[in-house]
Write a structure and sequence with these properties.
Blueprint lengths: L5 H4 L8 E6 L4 H15 L3 E7 L2 H9 L3 H4 L4 H19 L4
Parallel strand pairs: 1-2
């Protein structure tokens, strides 16, 4: 998917997807509403995996570590692992240029 303003950043920039971050699962109706609005505007470009709010993510950043080194069993690490798996699936299915 290409976005109109991407030509100012990089003329041949392709966006693989839109990642929802800081998703608060406690507010299900708001989360669903935002996800629906994004899908309405951007369709399949909205990635299914999301990264939720997780204090370990902030702590890892503060310590200068990635989440897998800081708290590998945390929800934040789980969300990023799911994202990585999804991106690998997308990239393996994408046609080669």
């Amino acid at each position: 998917m290409q976005f109109p303003n991407s030509c100012f950043l990089r003329p041949r920039l392709d966006v693989l997807g839109i990642l929802r971050t800081r998703v608060d699962a406690r507010t299900r109706s708001v989360t669903a509403s935002v996800a629906d609005a994004l899908r309405e505007s951007y369709g399949d470009a909205v990635l299914e995996p999301y990264v939720g709010i997780n204090s370990d993510l902030a702590k890892a950043q503060h310590e200068g570590l990635d989440i897998f080194a800081y708290a590998p069993q945390s929800r934040g690490a789980q969300h990023y692992a799911e994202l990585a798996e999804h991106l690998l699936e997308l990239l393996s299915a994408a046609p080669r240029a």
